[in-house]
Design a protein that fits this description.
This protein is of the alpha/beta class. The chain folds into 2 domains: 183 residues, Rossmann fold, CATH 3.40.50.300; 67 residues, no CATH class. The chain is 36% helix and 24% strand. A 6-stranded mixed sheet has the order 6-7-8-3-9-10. Strand 4 and strand 5 form a beta hairpin. Helix 3 runs parallel beside helix 5, helix 4 crosses helix 5 and helix 6 runs parallel beside helix 7. The radius of gyration is 19 Å and the shape is globular.
C-alpha cells in the first residue's frame, strides 16, 4: 500500500505571470528514490525549490506526511525543514573550511552536542560516504566526486528523514557518477531514507529510481508518474518514450538507449 511521505497537490509554479508548471499532483512514498525528470527548462530545479521551502507556489500545496507545508506557520515550516537535507549541484562546501568543519557546522548550530561528540559524528558521517580519514582536507584538495560525497555527508549531518539531490552527477565522470548512484541506493536501503533526485541522466534514472514524475516543458504540466522502467515499458506518450530512450524509441538495439 502507498505510504506517502510527501504529497504534492494541485501545485502551480510561476515567476510572476510566467507559468513554469501547472496542476502537479503526485506522491513520494516513504523509502522511495524518487526521480524528478524531464527536458531542459521543464522546471525540475524549480520544483525542488518548492519542495524544500525556497519558493512559494502560485497555487496548491506540499504536504509532509499529513501536514501542510505552505499553509503552516513559519515556525512549523522550520520544523519540517529540519527533517530534510539537501545536496546542491555544486556540493556547496565552504572552501575555507575543512571537510570536518563543513560537516560540524550544522551540528554546532542546531544541537547541544559537545565538541567531542560532534567530532565523532563527523567521522561517522564521512565514513558513511567513503571518506574516512579525510577530516582535515579542504574541498580544493579532493576530487569533484569526493566533494559531492562530502556535501552529502554534510546534508546527512542532522539525520534527515528525506534527502534532496539537485543534479548529483553533474560534472562527474561515469565511474564517479556510478559510485554516487550506488551510495544513494545504499543510503536508502540501510538508513530507510526517502530520497528525491532531480536529474536528466538516464543511467542514474534507471539504476536508482523506484518512482518518478515526468515534467513536460511544452504543455507545462506533468505527463506521468511511476517507476521509470514501467513508464518506458508501458507509456504510449511519445514524449516520454523519446526522453527515456535518447530519441531512439523502444526499438533501440540492445546496449543502446533505454538498456541499463
Amino acid at each position: 500500500m502507498s505510504n506517502p511521505h510527501i504529497t504534492v497537490k494541485d501545485l502551480t509554479m510561476a515567476y510572476g505571470d510566467f507559468v513554469i508548471q501547472r496542476d502537479l499532483n503526485f506522491t513520494i512514498d516513504h523509502g522511495d528514490v524518487f526521480i524528478v525528470m524531464g527536458g531542459s527548462g521543464c522546471g525540475k530545479s524549480t520544483l525542488l525549490k518548492h519542495l524544500i521551502g525556497l519558493q512559494k507556489p502560485a497555487k496548491g500545496d506540499v504536504f509532509y506526511d499529513d501536514q501542510s507545508f505552505w499553509q503552516a506557520a513559519a515556525e512549523e515550516r522550520v520544523k519540517v525543514m529540519r527533517r530534510i537535507g539537501v545536496l546542491y549541484q555544486s556540493g556547496a562546501l565552504f572552501s575555507s573550511l575543512t571537510l570536518a568543519e563543513n560537516i560540524a557546522l550544522p551540528l554546532g548550530e542546531f544541537t547541544t552536542l559537545t565538541q567531542s561528540e560532534i567530532a565523532d559524528l563527523v567521522s561517522y558521517k564521512l565514513a558513511l560516504v567513503g571518506l574516512a580519514g579525510f577530516e582535515a582536507y579542504y574541498p580544493s584538495e579532493i576530487s569533484g566526486g569526493m566533494q559531492k560525497r562530502a556535501g552529502l555527508a554534510r546534508a546527512m549531518a542532522l539525520d534527515p528523514e528525506i534527502l534532496f539531490f539537485d543534479e548529483p552527477s553533474a560534472g562527474l565522470d561515469p565511474v564517479s557518477a556510478r559510485l554516487l548512484d550506488d551510495l544513494i541506493i545504499s543510503l536508502c536501503e540501510t538508513l530507510g531514507t526517502t530520497i528525491v533526485v532531480v536529474t536528466h541522466e538516464l543511467a542514474s534514472i534507471f539504476a536508482i529510481g523506484t518512482n518518478s514524475v515526468f515534467l513536460d516543458p511544452e504543455s507545462k504540466t506533468m505527463l506521468a508518474t511511476g517507476n521509470p522502467k514501467t513508464l518506458l515499458a508501458e507509456s504510449s506518450d511519445s514524449r516520454i518514450i523519446q526522453f527515456l530512450t535518447r530519441g531512439e524509441g523502444r526499438s533501440a538495439p540492445s546496449g543502446q538507449a533505454g538498456d541499463f
